[in-house]
């Protein structure tokens, strides 16, 4: 019996344990009786993670229904809200937010358990999924990280692996006991199982959004629409969000700036990684996010009103967005050098009037000076010798 099954058995009304689904592509969590017997670590996890058990009791039946509808798809007809598959779609999307919160809680639990062995790991690997995988690979012997680089390279960047290797050599820590290591591995398995279930839900929603939200899927793509749908809690949740908050859905802190360029865009959520935004230059992406998020808010209203079921409005909005972005990318036209205006050499205007004439008379030549300067015609002037 797996740990997931044991958790479900405690909260299930039937005495028989829930069988693990072999047809599911997610990794199965299997624990032998020798691993569970004689240790209190598993019982401690059962007592501490009761919220995870309640979540799994709701999650497994929904995953079975997803398998059922994936194998035998039904054609949507009549009112969409009366379709049982649409109700399942809304239910699994509501549960996706709970899965995200539970993954964060499990990440905190695993970090607390593994901190005595490698305290620096929590600040170096911020992503919960990558942290759990790193814990599973490293285990209790952190000095062999260099020998496990190939396994770590499957989900970590080379720069982070190098920092981990150096940090492990200088880390002051202690070895975990067998019970502590077992509890850490089991909670990491639970975290990875919830992540695989969430990815399965997102994939299922993305395939069904072309039926239940055709315009939003046509605008940003099925995968991005499913991610927005899951983060906001369905069409109703996405409808209540203002367009300026839509780019923030799915945004998380950069894990490290080593080897990564700074884009200058803070809201790098699900919408930022859709094909429309990624296909334009970096300097136009901020404006493109504002334009596209406004159209997503409009397409959500169209889908909720159950109009344009063929996705025509979504395609029209997508064409409008592409035209606007194309205009933004056109460089400004070169008008050439502009000649300066011809200089105006007119004499400056002088003020006239009684006051100005009176002012000028103070500096005018007197009659006596005029008489002195006058010369008589035909008379010889005398010579004056000093």
Automatic annotation (TrEMBL):
- Record bears the keyword Transferase: no
The main location is nucleus
Q: Where is the composition biased (Polar residues)?
A: 17-32
Q: Which UniProt keywords apply?
A: mRNA processing, mRNA splicing, Nucleus, Ribonucleoprotein, RNA-binding, Spliceosome
Offer a single GO CC term for the protein: U4 snRNP
Query: Pfam family of this protein, just one?
Result: Nop
Any one GO MF annotation of this record: RNA binding
Indicate whether Ligase appears among the record's keywords.
no
Compositionally biased intervals (Basic residues): 348-359
Query: Which PROSITE patterns does the record match to this protein?
Result: NOP
Which GO BP terms, alphabetically?
mRNA cis splicing, via spliceosome; spliceosomal tri-snRNP complex assembly
Subcellular location(s) of the protein: Nucleus
Annotated segments matching region Disordered: 1-37, 327-359
Q: Which family does it belong to?
A: Belongs to the PRP31 family.
Q: Which PANTHER family match?
A: PRE-MRNA SPLICING FACTOR PRP31, U4_U6 SMALL NUCLEAR RIBONUCLEOPROTEIN PRP31
Supply the name of the protein.
Nop domain-containing protein
Instruction: Say which species the protein is native to.
Output: Lipomyces starkeyi NRRL Y-11557
The major lineage groups are:
Eukaryota, Fungi, Dikarya, Ascomycota, Saccharomycotina
């Amino acid at each position: 019996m797996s740990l997931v099954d044991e958790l479900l058995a405690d909260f299930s009304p039937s005495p028989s344990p829930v069988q693990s689904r072999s047809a599911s592509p997610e990794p199965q969590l299997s624990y032998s009786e020798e691993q569970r017997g004689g240790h209190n670590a598993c019982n401690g996890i059962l007592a501490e993670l009761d919220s995870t058990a309640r979540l799994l009791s709701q999650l497994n039946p929904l995953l079975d229904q997803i398998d059922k509808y994936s194998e035998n798809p039904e054609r949507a007809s009549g009112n969409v809200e009366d379709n049982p598959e649409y109700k399942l779609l809304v239910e699994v999307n509501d549960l996706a937010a709970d899965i995200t919160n539970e993954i964060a809680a499990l990440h905190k639990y695993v970090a607390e358990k593994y901190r005595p062995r490698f305290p620096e790991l929590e600040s170096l690997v911020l992503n919960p999924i990558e942290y759990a995988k790193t814990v599973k690979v490293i285990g209790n012997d952190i000095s062999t990280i260099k020998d496990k680089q190939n396994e770590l390279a499957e989900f970590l960047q080379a720069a982070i692996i190098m920092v981990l290797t150096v940090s492990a050599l200088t880390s002051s820590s202690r070895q975990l006991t067998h019970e502590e290591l077992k509890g850490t591995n089991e909670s990491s398995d639970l975290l990875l199982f919830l992540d695989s279930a969430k990815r399965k839900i997102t994939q299922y929603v993305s395939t069904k959004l072309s039926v239940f939200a055709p315009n939003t899927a046509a605008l940003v793509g099925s995968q991005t629409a499913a991610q927005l749908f899951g983060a906001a809690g369905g069409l109703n949740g996405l409808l209540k969000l203002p367009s300026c908050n839509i780019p923030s859905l799915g945004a998380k802190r950069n894990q490290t700036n080593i080897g990564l360029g700074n884009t200058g865009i803070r809201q790098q959520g699900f919408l930022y990684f859709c094909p429309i935004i990624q296909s334009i230059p970096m300097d136009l992406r901020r404006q493109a996010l504002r334009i596209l998020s406004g159209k997503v808010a409009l397409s959500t209203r169209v889908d909720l009103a159950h109009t344009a079921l063929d996705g025509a409005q979504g395609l029209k909005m997508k064409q409008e967005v592409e035209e606007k972005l194309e205009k933004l990318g056109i460089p400004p036209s070169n008008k050439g050098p502009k000649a300066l205006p011809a200089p105006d050499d007119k004499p400056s205007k002088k003020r006239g009037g009684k006051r100005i004439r009176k002012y000028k008379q103070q500096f005018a030549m007197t009659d006596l000076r005029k008489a002195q300067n006058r010369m008589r015609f035909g008379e010889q002037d005398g010579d004056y010798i000093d």
